[in-house]
Amino acid sequence: MDKSDKKEKHEKNEQKVDRETKKEPPKRLQQIPKIDDRPGFKGIVRLAGKDIRGHVRLRRALAYIRGVGPTLSISIANVLHNKFGFSVDKEVGEFTDQDIEKIDKVLFNIQEHGIPKFLLNRRSDMLDGTDKHVIMNDLIFTTKQDIEREKKLYTWKGYRFHYGQKVRGQRTRNTGRTGMTVGVLRKTVLAAQQAQKEAPGAGKPGAAAPAGGAAPAAGGAAAKATAKPADKPAGKPAEKK
Fold it and tell me: Where are the domains of the chain?
């Protein structure tokens, strides 16, 4: 390779290093423009008792409400579009107070607007036997009532709720442990016992003495056992019949 080629290669490497070391700082995400200045626009909208930012679109805003999931929010948005002509992509801050009241009426009476039954969360309710859907504080209250009823009946679910264990059949060996569990306690006990066994013979000078003195004792016992037949008299006296 010629000197000129080496020089060009060296310059290219230096330029590459300069580009890598002198990287431009990452571009920040564009901040949301100030939309509160629009006439009639609301920065915060209270929808079914939930405060929602005004720039959120209707379909997404419905999913913020407790008790309304992604699938149900799409169905409710379609109901609002078909009944009142509300666009699902319209920002909630652009709705008037009358429009918000119409949306609230639909949300608190979802079962009356043709929503499929399998999307409702209170089918065949125990109190009145009807199919309905509860949201927000009503959902929290009914859930607590259901748990208390299971505890009073002392069903298996109520038993598990009472002791703070998992209710739906999950395993509790690895997860869901509470208090001093048996497996962890047993390991600590075994480790302590092993440490106690290894501790006495670690550095005590008289620890090896009993083992050394055991050999002569064992030898003496063997000598006595062998000496006993020699000490016996040669002849035994005749037994009386």
Answer: 44-116, 119-162
Tell me the percentage of the chain whose pLDDT exceeds 70.
Answer: 69
Q: Residues near 79 by Cβ (< 8 Å), separated by ≥ 6? A: 106, 113, 114, 115
Burial 4-36 (b: 16+ CB within 10 A, else e): eeeeeeeeeeeeeeeeeeeeeeeeeeeeeeeee
Range of 152-161, 188-197, 201-210 with top mean pLDDT: 152-161
Residue appearing with tokens 């009145």:
128
CATH of 44-116, one of 1.10.8.50, 3.30.1310.10, 3.40.630.10, 3.40.30.10: 1.10.8.50
pTM of the predicted structure, to 2 decimals: 0.57
Q: What are residue 57's phi and psi, to 5 degrees?
A: -75, 160
> Using H for helix, E for strand and C for coil, what is the string for 161-218?
HHCCCCCCCCCCCCCCCCCCCHHHHHHHHHHHHHHHHHCCCCCCHHHCHHHHHHHHHH
Q: What is the mean pLDDT of residues 224-238?
A: 52
Nearest by Cα to 65 from 35, 99, 36, 92: 92
Are the beta carbons of 181 and 188 closer than 8 angstroms?
no
